[in-house]
Amino acid sequence: MNKIFSTVQKNEQKVDYHGLLRGNPVFTGDLIPKDALCVRLLHSPYAHARILSFDLSKALEIEGVSCVLTHKDLPRIPYTRAGQGHPEPSPYDTVLLDSKVRFVGDVVAIVAAVDEKTAERAIQAIQVGYEELPPVLDFEKAMDSDAPVIHDETDLSGAYDPQQNLAAHYEMMLGDVDLIFEQSEVKMERTYYYPKSQQVPMEPHAAFSYFDEKNRLVVVSSTQVPFHARRILSRILSLPLSRIRVVKPRIGGGFGAKQGVIIEGYVGAVTLRTSRPAYLVLSREESFLNTYTRHDMRLKVRVGANRDGRIRSLDLHALSNTGAYGDHALTVIMVCGSKTLPLYNKVDAVRFVGDAVYTNLPCAGAYRGYGAPQGIMGIDGVLDELALELNMDPLDLKAMNAIQEGEGSPIFKIMGEGREGVEQVAASCKLDLCIEEGRRIFDWDRKRLLYPKKEGSIVRGIGCALAMQGSGIAKIDMGAASLKMNDDGSFNLHIGATDLGTGSDTILSQIAAEVLSVPLTSIIVHSSDTDYTPFDTGAYASSTTYVSGNAVLKAAKKVKEQILQSASKIMGEPLDQLEVHSGHVRSSKSGKAIHYGDLCTQLFYTAHQRQIAATESYVGQESPIPFMASFMEVEVDLKTGIVHPIETVSVVDCGTPINPQLALGQIYGATMQGIGTAFHEEMRFDQKGKPINASLFRYKIPDRTSYGKITAKIVDSYEPSGPFGAKSVSEIGIDTPTIAVLNAIDHATGVRLRRVPVRPEDLLQAIMEKKEGS
Amino acid sequence: MKISFTLNHLPVEMEVEPNQSLLNVLRTKGYHGAKKGCDTADCGSCTVLVNGKAVLSCLLLAPSVQGCTVTTIEGLSPKPDESQQERLYSPEQKAFADENAFQCGYCAPGLIMSTHELLSRYEELNAEEIRFHLSGNLCRCTGYEQQIQAVQNLFQKKKRGELG
User: Fold this and answer.
1) Which residue range forms the structural domain that includes residue B18?
2) For B98, which residue in chain A has the nearest alpha carbon?
3) Domain boundaries, given as residue ranges, for chain A
4) Using CA of residue A747, residue A749, residue A750, residue A751, what is the dihedral sign?
5) Which of B100, B130, B133, B149 to mutate to test the interface with A (most CBs of A within 10 A)?
6) Distance from C-alpha of A677 to C-alpha of A569, rounded to nearest angstrom
7) Is there a single domain that holds both residue B55 and residue B114?
8) pTM
9) Which residue from A205, A732, A725, A286 is spatially nearest to A500, judged by alpha carbons?
């Protein structure tokens, strides 16, 4: 659909660039009050242990130490750190400080002191007596009958079967999967593994708290979920919600790692205890261990198909490692099925079984894609293998089985997030366009003829992968927006939506500016302060553009209506002849016009006095699906097993991109994270559960040099229910590159790897084994 | 111990500890432009210029800048005295803004400082060379395509003599 917009679909510069690019103090860590106590954490050296005793005397003797808190000092209030809607679908299996530690790095005590050096000295001086317990480090053995029970506390609730270390379980079946599989002409059964990667936002988690002049606790935090943070803090600090204010300044990225209330409780507890401002900025190592990671998964996939490539049955069993705590455990495994299986909606039968188990490793949580990258890895990988077996082009096989515009899947209704879902059809689905466009840009057909191309020991191959995601959680995620007019014709836009660096302040302002026919500079946006902005569930589940965007759209339309009504009275012109144009109200008949500034000044001071303002909220009745097709070319050195990515093409249907440059940035960034997972990113632990690579020196995220040519493209698409046709773009880009790499390696070498990151030694061994076999 | 150096074009004297990093000193003294992403010289967010060279201030001991010229992003940014109406950008800041090349912007000051140094050292660089030279500045949000484009645009401007 071709619509001409004036601000939407334009590359407006991010509204916060002035402060960001000039290095102004805009992040949490830049804004810490001068007199704030420095908070540091004592971490467990053991993967699984009971705390028997503390000797705090030496720590408390150190001059400048304000307080040392252990589990003995705090009330025991079970909660989940997961920043989700209420009632939370994650188990209440955490207390702020516990008498048991469940991974190396788990928090044992909180210290607050006048400065960092003193706090660190006090941490060193604390003596702790532990009773070491046998740990569970292999998630595939977590449910063994002799596995130690990680959550043996009696006050836990919401976990599926803690005695079996089972945090969450879900299963669903449509049709008789076993029967259809048995009857299928081609059967394929494979197991894939997705690693425990980490979000690595460039800004480590930071928070500080203080009491304001009304004796209310103000918490400034790098959070994706300020309103959930306020609710959860009220619970764990036993403070009335009305006495807590959560403020989110600029955020240095999150990718899900900040969709949890992870450190706010520590600073809050110190401020409550000492009545003093307190801050905590995590070190990079703590950021790796004490926040969130990806849920690593084992994906057992069974596919039954006809010889012509039509898939008849899909059967996905996901075993997910939630680590020491069950944050996001249930919802991530549900998304592993619900945002992957409907992509291939023409099957006769489909089953999904998901288990999320506890282990004595750092806690997994939300991470861009939220289960979908794992599910896509298993499903797309098997379909690729199926195509190979049937001697078909994998792109053709995937395309012929994929969902099309106007189609639905019964899975949408059955599987929601943590509960039943919502029936929907893909009202906008340009996956076919993504495939065609990518095929052309990547030159897929020519490369299919030429490749695998071998020169000496170097061989090139290509792979593809398809993905879907969602736009918010239907009938759960709610966003609200308030808009008020000023007497120069500018507008204050107050939104609960949480810009964590994505640019949502900018694109939401663009939506308001478009409706009101003003330049972007006339929208003064302020986001995420629980005292001053209306509610929003927060920045997760690819919700902001669609859910919060629709709220802004509604509020702006309401304000526009009020402007026209007031203008009609002031101008003495009939309402139905008035329209807004370029910061004016004008009459289409008489040609008379009034500037917004003049209008509002009169409304404030002289005529028909009122404040033009509106607050509107929006809940998605469905979760419109963005789609994507990715193409990957790799070069493999058969002598070393080293793989180089040569070219990646990612083509996305995200509806109307409200800001094309920012949307492309999302795709580029997500693609890089997917490529990083394919080649480097995995948190590793020794035999006692001690982390091996919890630093940016040893855990490599992609740098600028070695990832070949990357092209991102957005196809024309218009989502009828979205603001100006938009749906989401933030998560989907990470879903495909990882499996596309494995598909391309298979094409190049004939060797199928089913786990990442790809290690040259693994690939080399597989290549040599294949040689010996043939 | 006391050290004196030139910070953002002005002479300063500061009381520092011998083992304090320059990053730590700058941030405690209210210069928040340089960011701490890792504190182990792996991410580049803390990049500042010392005697015109891009260095990682988290790895540099503060006493070693005695007598040196230190420039942080605050020193690169135009002073807000001329036109308050406009956003005030250096050519590097503007080039990145034009491409919307940052999302969260946490890595921005570091990358802008590295870019500034690169422009002062080289007359011409192709995309691959730019990638190589700026590989020490990690960005997790935006990928690198739009940033490389921004730096390429800067070098083209330099070639045309438009950088001043």
Assistant:
1) 2-75
2) A13
3) 17-24+478-619, 32-133+204-253+258-281, 296-471+623-773
4) negative
5) B100
6) 61
7) no
8) 0.97
9) A205
